[in-house]
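REQUEST FORM: STRUCTURE PREDICTION
Request ID: SP-0412
Submitted by: Lab K.M.
Chain count: 1
Length (residues): 239
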Amino acid sequence: MPQEILLKVSDIDAYYGSLQVLWDVSIEVKTGETVAIIGANGSGKSTLMNSISGIMHPVRGSIMFDGMDITMMDPYQIVTLGISQVPEGRRIFPDMTVYENLRLGAYNHRARPKREQSFENVYQHFPILEKRKKQLAKTMSGGEQQMMAIGSALMSDPKLLLLDEMSLGLSPIVVNELYYVLKEIRSKGITIIFVEQNVRRTLEEAERAYILETGHVVLSGSAESLRAEEKVKKAYFGA
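STATUS: Completed
RESULT:
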């Protein structure tokens, strides 16, 4: 049975003030997929993620999610529909406890009735968070804070999880642990889009990928086919 298209971004242009950052960008993500967005700094990766989550709105084109036009919706509306973003730099509430940070993730009306079950799910993925639930977030290590940021996003009961530079500044051991958890999350039916600096690792973890250069999609396809693409080898693997 073919997978349904969960997210369809069609021909969007996006600006920061008068500066255009995305040109005619289109991507499709099917239910249950893990899809990567690859590109150098300044290529528009975070702008694309922020457009999907409603932090910014494209000036042209459309974004459809689960059959609904979300192009001009606000973030709180989009979270309620089932999209949750873990932004670059985590952006936690440092002077609140781990428990309080997680609880805030379930503020939308769709997630609130499932809050206790969501806590159990998050603690299964990240047992350290249950042990540290009374600890102030700012006293956690960088890896633990990233686990908490992902956990908070999961508390919103998402259908689609957006992860922006998940492994930035973290040790290889922590990164391996986070990728293992992503596999568990995906096995529960949650669709994942992620932006990552390590292209080689990205193309090992994703099923498909889109490559952005200066705000344009220049390549897309299965991770396997992109690993063999000469342009990718030269640009990212030094081949």
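NOTES: The first helix runs from residue 45 to 53.
Reviewed by: T.R.
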